[in-house]
Structure formats: C-alpha cells, structure tokens
Amino acid sequence: MRKSILVTGGTKGIGRAIVQRFAQEGFDIFTCARSEQDLLTLKAQLESDFPEIKVIAHPADLSKREEVQRFAALVRQVGLPDVMVNNTGIFLPGAIHDEPEGNFEFMMATNLFSAYYLIREFVKEMITRRSGHIFSMGSIAGLTAYPNGGSYAVSKWAMLGMTKCLREELKPHQIKVTSILPGATFTDSWAGVDLPIDRFIKAEDVAESVWGAYNLSPQTVVEELIIRPQLGDI
C-alpha cells in the first residue's frame, strides 16, 4: 500500500521541496496553501512528473481554526497520512516593543496554532495505528534571540517547545516527532536581499534532511535537526 505525506504550505520554498522529494519516492501528497492558482500549478506538475501518485491539494488559510478543520476533513476522506510536516508559516519583521498591532496574534495563529490544531486532528488515529512521523518546521530564530525577530521568533520558540512536549507524549505509541530548525534558506522570504545565493541553504537540502530523518530504523528518531548555512547565520 502506497504511503502518504501531508505538507502544509506546500507550494513554495521548503514545503514545495519536501513535497517534490517525497513524490519522487512514490508518496501520495496532501497539501494546502492560500493560493488556489499555486496549488493547481503544483498539482498539474506533480501529476505530470509522477502519474502513479495521488495529489490532494486544497486552498486553506491555516491561521483560521475552521479552515484547519475543513482541510483535515478533506484529507480524512482519503486516508490518514503516514507523515505530517507542519510547514505553514509567515515572517513579519519587527521588535516586540514596537511592531505593528496584530503581528503577534497573526504570526502565532499562522506559525503555531495551525500546527497545534492540525496535529490534534490526526494524532489520536496515529496512536491507534501506532505509527506516524510528525515534523514541525521551526527556525534558528527559535534557538537564538536576535533583534527585529519580534513575534516571529516568539512563535518559533513556542513551536520548538510544543514539539518537545509532543515527542515525550508520543514516545510510547511508536510515533516519531522531529523539529526541523533551518537557518536562512533561499525562499521568497529573502527575495530582494543583496546577498549571493550560495550564502543561503538550499530548500532542497532541507527536504533531503527531512527524507533522511524519516528513513531511520523504527528504534531511532532524530529529535532536532539544526541546519545552517556553511558560513554561519545571516
């Protein structure tokens, strides 16, 4: 029976690279993003390149709990994913003391609450099945404080804490939990920055790391995977 992966925010950057990597291995794909057109483009490309797999792609704004639940219901109609990658996220720069009103609520809802609610939609069935691997996309910003990180950094520290708690809860149920903590990765978030591309991590390298962590033997888990540019943080 073919395995499946659910990747939120799967149309761009790291999410898209993960979708591509697992599609190459014959996984069925569940994904979502805010842009319906981007999803249609991704779905057409995957179905062309990998005609043997099933691709379920639906628009959803996961900063809204009701859309998390709607997307989960659509996935559940097809099946329970073997792998989950909570990748949805947004970065809005600003300092805690003077960032625009609403930054905190919006980034916490998008970067943290989306993962919390989506995990709760599927984890009880994973426990019953006694298998699954949950990845949470954190950030170096969730390990190292820096100026102008603001609510984004707060959300990523919280994501790491949540993932650590989840790891402890799910150990006895044979469900693996991994925090992915990448540094500056060349995605749309860095568009327009006056730095050479080779100063950044490749999104494909993050995807390869996720694939490698997934493929360990059942008795072994990568709890945290820190990925940095070779020349250090930007």
UniProtKB/TrEMBL annotation:
<dbReference type="InterPro" id="IPR036291">
    <property type="entry name" value="NAD(P)-bd_dom_sf"/>
</dbReference>
<keyword id="KW-0560">Oxidoreductase</keyword>
<dbReference type="InterPro" id="IPR020904">
    <property type="entry name" value="Sc_DH/Rdtase_CS"/>
</dbReference>
<protein>
    <submittedName>
        <fullName>Short-chain dehydrogenase</fullName>
    </submittedName>
</protein>
<dbReference type="GO" id="GO:0016491">
    <property type="term" value="F:oxidoreductase activity"/>
</dbReference>
<comment type="similarity">
    <text>Belongs to the short-chain dehydrogenases/reductases (SDR) family.</text>
</comment>
<dbReference type="InterPro" id="IPR002347">
    <property type="entry name" value="SDR_fam"/>
</dbReference>
<dbReference type="Pfam" id="PF00106">
    <property type="entry name" value="adh_short"/>
</dbReference>
